[in-house]
Write a structure and sequence with these properties.
elongated; three-stranded mixed β-sheet; 3 strands
Amino acid sequence: MINQRDLRLKSREIMDAVERGEEFIVTRDGRQIGELIPFRQRQRFVSRAQFAAMSACAPTIDPNRLRADLDIFDQMIEDPYDR
């Protein structure tokens, strides 16, 4: 935790620490008022195991219901060149 005064006086050192991955809770008069956290880097590659773990809580898709929904959607779209 860092207080507002330290954040103001030591901002360079604190920002360097955040850049290295450290996280801080900022306080004012002893009350927590915010967090300083580093940006999360976007992960470009997802392994098969990670994908399986993330997909474990995904809803089950009924392929027949999906096809019916898509058929209805296809009927709603008009071809601008169809005259």
